[in-house]
Amino acid sequence: MNFSSNLSPLVSPNLAPAAHDVVASLYCVFRAGEDYFALPLLQVEEIISAPVIAELPASPPFLLGTLVSAGESMPVLDLALSPVLPDPRYGIVVRIGAGRAAIKVAIAADDLISPGAATVPESTMHFSPTPGMARFIQGRLNCSGVTAWALNPDFLINALLSPTRD
């Protein structure tokens, strides 16, 4: 599958990956719908298999509902923006912000690429920054033949709730 046709004109499909990329190994790579994304592992609190999601009527398209983990309720975001309520295989819980102002949200995932059931060798993961993209996109991550958008969760919420595009 060729991902370069789906890329913004601001992103060069000819970026040369590093020979060994430590930054790339610091991400959780997953699929949501037909797209691949990556979240910084330092912000991933937990990965929930087969999350039970309570639907919220009349919610925005990116909000699937809520789930409860360790007695704490949190919103579940759908980056695939599915027109029908999907049944995600995983909920990736991320911490946004720091200290007492930090919040947790879960991001719906259909498949885990890394970390997943199989170990992905670090030598197959490469990170390429994408300056000039939206603030919530840190770069592109190539992982075992999959190209994922590396996201910054701190800016993602603002972008989803903003009345204008980032």
Characteristic terms for this protein:
OB fold (Dihydrolipoamide Acetyltransferase, E2P); 5% helix; 166 residues; 6-stranded mixed β-sheet; single chain; globular
Structure report:
Strands 9-1-2-12-11-10 form a six-stranded mixed β-sheet. The model is unreliable at 1-22 (pLDDT under 50). By secondary structure, the chain is mainly beta. The two termini are 28 Å apart. It is globular, with a radius of gyration of 16 Å. Helices cover 5% and strands 42% of the residues.
What's the short story on this structure?
This protein is mainly beta and 166 residues long.
Broad CATH class: Mainly Beta
Anisotropy-based shape: globular
Ends apart, CA distance between termini: 28 Å
- Fraction of helical residues: under 10%
What share of residues are in beta strands? 35-45%
- Poorly predicted runs are 1-22
Number of domains: 1
- The CATH topology: OB fold (Dihydrolipoamide Acetyltransferase, E2P)
Secondary structural class: mainly beta
CATH superfamily label: CheA-289, Domain 4
Strand order of the largest sheet: 9-1-2-12-11-10
Radius of gyration: 16 Å
**Mean model confidence by pLDDT:** 75
What's the total number of strands? 12
Question: What is the fold's blueprint, element by element?
Answer:
Elements: E1 27-32, E2 35-40, E3 44-49, E4 54-55, E5 63-69, E6 72-77, E7 90-96, E8 103-109, E9 111-114, E10 125-129, E11 137-143, E12 146-151, H1 153-161
Parallel strand pairs: 2-12, 6-8
Antiparallel strand pairs: 1-2, 1-9, 3-7, 4-5, 5-6, 7-8, 10-11, 11-12
